[in-house]
Every structure is written in C-alpha cells, then in structure tokens.
Amino acid sequence: MQKAILITGASTGIGRHLAHYLAERDHLVYAAVRKDTDFAALSGVPNIVPVQLDVTNLEQIETAVTFITAQGTGLYGLVNNAGLGGLGYFTTWSEAEFQQIFDVNVAGPWRMSNAFLDLLLAARGRIVNIGSQGGTVSKKLYGPYTMTKHALEAYTMALNEELRPFHVHVSIVQPGGIVSNIGANGLPDMVARLQRAQPPFATEAQQLLASFDNPSPPPDPNAPESESNRKPSSPEIVATAVDHALFADRPKLRYMVGTHWEGNRVINTLIDRLLDANDSPEHSYSREQLIALLDQQLQARNEAVRPLQ
Ligand SMILES: NC(=O)c1ccc[n+]([C@@H]2O[C@H](COP(=O)([O-])OP(=O)(O)OC[C@H]3O[C@@H](n4cnc5c(N)ncnc54)[C@H](OP(=O)(O)O)[C@@H]3O)[C@@H](O)[C@H]2O)c1
User: Fold this and answer.
1) From the CB of 238, is ligand 1 less than 6 Å away?
2) Ligand 1 pocket check: which of 152, 182, 265 to mutate, most ligand atoms within 8 Å of Cβ?
3) How far is the CA of 46 from the centre of ligand 1 (A)?
4) Gap between the Cα atoms of 151 and 148, Å rounded
5) Pick the CATH number of 4-181+231-283 from 3.40.50.1100, 3.40.50.720, 3.40.50.2000, 3.40.710.10
6) Long-range contacts for 203-212 (Cβ within 8 Å, ≥24 apart)?
7) Is residue 56 within 6 Å of ligand 1 at its C-beta?
8) First vs last Cα of the chain: how many Å apart?
9) Could you give the CA distance from residue 218 to residue 232 in angstroms, rounded to a whole number?
10) Where along the chain do its domains lie?
C-alpha cells in the first residue's frame, strides 16, 4: 500500500476516474460521495474506501476527519475535486444558486483543507485543487462558474505560500473540456435560467432553448476544434496531472491540461492580460524589455526545475 488520498466528488466524472486510477496504482483512496447508491457502488472496490461527505456539510466533514484519523493510515493527499457547473446570464441566477456555486466550488476546498490540515501536516502531504481553464478565461454565460474558478486560483497561490514552510505543497489542475457528467448535471438549472431570461437577453435565450430541441447535425469528426466544435478530452489527462502534483519530487503550482486549441486560448488570454498590465503611463516596458523579462523568467524556471544533485 502506498499513500492515503482523499478525493471529493468521487461519484462521477473526473473524481471517479481519479479514484480508480490511484487505487489501481496501489494507493488507498478515500472516495467521498454524497449518495448511498454511489457509496454502495464503490464499496468492495480494491483500495477504495467510500466516505459519505458533502463539502458544504460541516458535520459530515468532521465525521470524515474522525473516521480517517481512526483508520491509522494518515492522510497524505487531499484532492478538492467536487464542483458544480452551470451556465446562464448573470441576471438569471437566483441568489441561492449564486451562493451555492461559491459554497461548493470555493468554500468547499477551503473547508476541506482546513479540516484535514493536521493530518496533511503530519504526513508532509499535498493538496490538489481541481480548477479549470475557466480560472483564466471567461465568457458570457459562463460568468459565475468561471468566477469560482478564478477564486480557486487565488486560494491555491495563497495557501501554497502559507503551507510551503510546513512541507505541504498545494497545486491547481486547470482542465479544459473533459468528458464527464458536468454538462448533464447542470442542464436542468441552465434550462430554467434560460427560460426566465428577460430582455435584452430573452431573444437569444429562446434561440438557445430552440437549438436544444433541434440540434445541428454533428460536425465532421475530422474538422479541427473550434468554439462551435469542441473536442473534450479524457479524464485520464487530469489523473496524470494530479498524479504528478501528488507524488513528484518537485510538484508544479499549476497544471494546465486540455487540447491544443484550448491551450492557445489560455495563452492568448494571458498575453492580453500582460499587455493590459503593461499599458500604463507609470509602467510600460518596450517590446525588447518584455522579451528580456520573459527570458529571465524562463532561465529562473529552468534552474528551479533542475534535478537535485
Ligand atoms: N468536465 C469538465 O469539462 C471540467 C473542466 C474543468 C474543470 N472541471 C472541474 O472538475 C471537477 C469535477 O467535475 P466533473 O467534470 O467530473 O463533473 P461531474 O461529473 O458533474 O462531477 C461532479 C462531482 O462533484 C460532486 N459534488 C457536487 N456538489 C457536491 C457537494 N456539495 N459536496 C460534495 N460533492 C459534490 C458530485 O456529486 P453528486 O454525484 O453527488 O452530485 C460529483 O461527484 C469540478 O470541480 C469541475 O469544475 C471539469
């Protein structure tokens, strides 16, 4: 048996894939799920111990801390994977929906990391937050979801700096589109939001709803990826990144995973931000100075990742 890892949201999608991925590699996986049926489905899987846990429920979190402590396995890794998706114009989100997505996607990792910190400190362990490329890019309809993933970026940076002196490393994995249940799980709420859209969004919302009833024919599978022809990746690429963040001697702070098209979108967004930051009367580097800064950063990074002698 190798290390003990707790994964939230292990019932479906990325979390379930990761639970099996780590268990097959002989790690002990505490797989946190909410529903009895998911608990039963994971019971008896070798190296997986299901745990009933909703990341918004403090009582269940405390019970899980007591349970895992009593197992005597310690806890080396916490993967904050549980998350809600959801699309809709800002004005169509109810107060309760808006608070809920922050409660699960942002306060959830904060609550879990706090609750399990003593065990993670004792193990000199790792925390891995499952962010998103939506922690860097954003677009209409994706507003609240991407706000939560932007918040998770700041949380990861600050928490990593807090915990590094105590030998706990914190990383964030930033997937693009991944095959999972997130779209289907968010569909009913999204439809309800589109149905209650008011002017000036009502016309476009009605067109979107109509397009669900009459979907366009599927694009040619050989057509290149584009905004209207997305090609979601396997959850395996997330599992591989989490594996590195958990077990590599030199884990990275950020792991962006996804397709080439998605990567281009993120890099162009970051360049746009860099140019915005540079476009200021008090502070404006020339093109040559910017390139020299990039070279310095690349060199510092190469030296930092040089293997230990
Ligand atoms: N799929 C993508 O394209 C994609 C891209 C970037 C980032 N991500 C991120 O990856 C993570 C996993 O998403 P997924 O794509 O695998 O979606 P998913 O298939 O919908 O799985 C979401 C998981 O979160 C759990 N969950 C929801 N609310 C919870 C709560 N209050 N407490 C505990 N668990 C809760 C769900 O449990 P139930 O089954 O009980 O509802 C489920 O296990 C999320 O953080 C998501 O934002 C996904």
Assistant:
1) no
2) 182
3) 23
4) 5
5) 3.40.50.720
6) 205/89, 205/92
7) yes
8) 29
9) 14
10) 4-181+231-283
C-alpha 91 to ligand 1 mean position (Å)? 24
β-bridge pairing 77-80 and 48-52? unpaired
pLDDT tens across the length of the chain (309 residues): 699 999 999 999 999 999 999 999 999 999 999 999 999 999 999 999 999 999 999 999 999 999 999 999 999 999 999 999 999 999 999 999 999 999 999 999 999 999 999 999 999 999 999 999 999 999 999 999 999 999 999 999 999 999 999 999 999 999 999 999 999 999 999 999 999 999 999 999 999 999 998 888 888 889 999 998 999 999 999 999 999 999 999 999 999 999 999 999 999 999 999 999 999 988 899 999 999 999 999 999 888 766 544
Q: Cis ω on the peptide bond leading into residue 224 (within 30° of 0)?
A: no
- Is 145 catalytic? The answer is yes
Tokens 């290149």 identify what position?
224
Sort strands 254-257 and 169-175 into parallel, antiparallel or unpaired. Answer: parallel
